[in-house]
Structures are given as C-alpha cells and as structure tokens.
Specification:
Elements: H1 6-10, E1 17-21, E2 26-30, H2 35-46, E3 51-57, E4 60-66, H3 69-88, H4 98-102, H5 106-119, H6 126-131
Antiparallel strand pairs: 1-2, 3-4
Length: 135
Amino acid sequence: MAILKKSDILLGIDDPRPITIESLGGEVYLRPLSSSEVNEIVNIEAKGYGVFDAKTRGKTADASGKMNLAKMNEAEAEAKYQAIYLSINNPKGDEWTLEELQALHSDQIDELYDNVMRISGAGITEEEVKRFPED
C-alpha cells in the first residue's frame, strides 16, 4: 500500500470530474465538497427544521415540535444552490452565479445536487435505504 502525502489526500476537493447530468443533456465538471463544506450545507438545511423539545420524567418522555414547511423548503433550496455553487465553480468549468443556478429547472437542480453529494461521499446509498428499519 502506498504512503500518502497530505497533498495527495487534499487533492480530492481540487479534482473536478465530468459528471453526466441527464436533465441537462450532457456533462458538467463538478468537484467533491470538503467535509467542512458538507457541514456548511447540512447546517443550512438544519435552519429549516424547526423547534423540537423533549423532556423526560422518570421513565416517560414528552416531546413536541413545531415545523414551518415554507422555512424548511427555503432552507433546503438554499442548501442545494450553495452545494452546487461550491462544486460547479472549479478550474475546469464555467463560472456560475447563484442567480444563474436559480434559473435552472428543479429537476436539473435535484440531479446536480444529488451528484455533488454523491461524489462528496455525503449521499444516501441504496444499501443504507434497504437497512433502514420499517417500523
């Protein structure tokens, strides 16, 4: 097994690769997000989750939550745009603005986002879905 240098390990986020985007009818260069960037995206999404409160009293627990669906939708969209923006603006691709990304169709945004998260190691795999308990 080869000994890796720090520069070899960090090269991953600076290694854009052509990714086929069916909804766009071709390939675009996307780069993986760093773990810090993935955390940034997760935090943006979390802003829309609402407020959840859980209290335990002995062996029982009371929980309540409030969700604002409009706020959740806004946070999810902001996270998707930011993830794509970070990934698609790389040395091998064209420069994109957030406004240009927001002009794309929702199926194009979803496909781009899914691919960004997949190449960043942050996507949900089919195996994880199969292992998820049904109850």
